[in-house]
Design brief:
The complex is a heterodimer.
Chain A (H helix, E strand, L loop, with lengths): L3 E4 L2 E4 L5 E7 L4 E9 L6 E7 L5 E2 L8 E7 L2 E6 L8 E9 L6 E2 L3 E5 L1
Parallel strand pairs in A: 2-11
Antiparallel strand pairs in A: 1-3, 3-8, 4-5, 4-9, 5-6, 7-8, 9-10, 9-11
Chain B lengths: L8 E5 L4 E6 L8 E7 L6 E6 L4 E2 L4 E4 L5 E6 L8 E8 L11 E6 L1
Parallel strand pairs in B: 1-9
Antiparallel strand pairs in B: 2-7, 3-4, 3-8, 5-6, 6-7, 8-9
The chains are: A mainly beta, B mainly beta.
């Protein structure tokens, strides 16, 4: 099946620093990628939708200036958490869908811990 | 996406079939029923999906009622590695998947 690679798997950073998370579709072209966030014992919550070559669409309550999303190519999307704070500590998961594909494939997730 | 309802948790003995129900009484005609699972600290894994016919693959079987208002995911021989949260989602188009709370399946030795 299709593979979505997410990197890094985990990251620990100091409060106030920025963290970049990469999401790559390895064997298909992802016209659309989605970013989710998951807090402990909760379900996945959609943060934003990114389409290749255009600006991301953010869900209500998600700050676009804090969570910068770039989808510059059909195989790569990045999420940058700017000026991270402890409350941004969470499990971030990307997913990708190829054109004409009914299935959505997920990365392995990134556990972010902000000290 | 239509709302789905799943039991909060279920137990299953190792080696037995695990039958996970899902209610989607307001599903629309073009929405598929998708099943994903999430093992602790990993991204969701696709299991199976269907529109109205029953489906089977190497992981599971999906039984959809004739009126499409409910479905059952069947893991024929559950193993300890099947312990996970299972999500049933009614979905169509290129919009993102919306996850509910899912069913926490515990496979017991």
């Amino acid at each position: 099946g299709a593979v979505v690679s997410q990197h890094p798997s985990w990251v620990i950073c100091k409060s106030g620093t920025s963290v970049k998370i990469e999401c790559r579709s390895l064997d298909f072209q992802a016209t659309t990628m989605f970013w989710y966030r998951q807090f402990p014992k909760q379900s996945l919550m959609l943060m934003a939708t990114s389409n290749e070559g255009s600006k991301a669409t953010y869900e209500q309550g998600v700050e676009k200036d804090k969570f910068l999303i770039n989808h510059a190519s059909l195989t790569l999307s990045t999420l940058t958490v700017t000026s991270a704070h402890p409350e941004d500590s969470s499990f971030y998961i990307c997913s990708a869908k190829g054109q004409g594909n009914e299935k959505l494939f997920f990365g392995s997730g990134t556990q972010l811990s902000v000290l | 996406d239509a709302k789905t309802t799943q039991p909060t948790s279920m137990d299953c003995a190792e080696g037995r079939a695990a039958n996970l129900p899902c209610n989607h009484s307001t599903i629309s005609g073009n929405e598929y029923v998708y099943w994903y699972r999430q093992i602790h600290s990993q991204g969701p894994q696709y299991i199976i999906h269907g529109l109205k016919n029953n489906e089977t693959n190497e992981m599971a079987s999906l039984i959809i009622t004739e009126d499409r208002k409910s479905s059952t995911l069947i893991l024929p021989h559950a193993t300890l590695r099947d312990t996970a949260v299972y999500y049933c989602i009614a979905h169509s188009g290129n919009t993102p998947l919306v996850f509910g709370k899912g069913t926490r399946l515990s496979v017991i030795a």
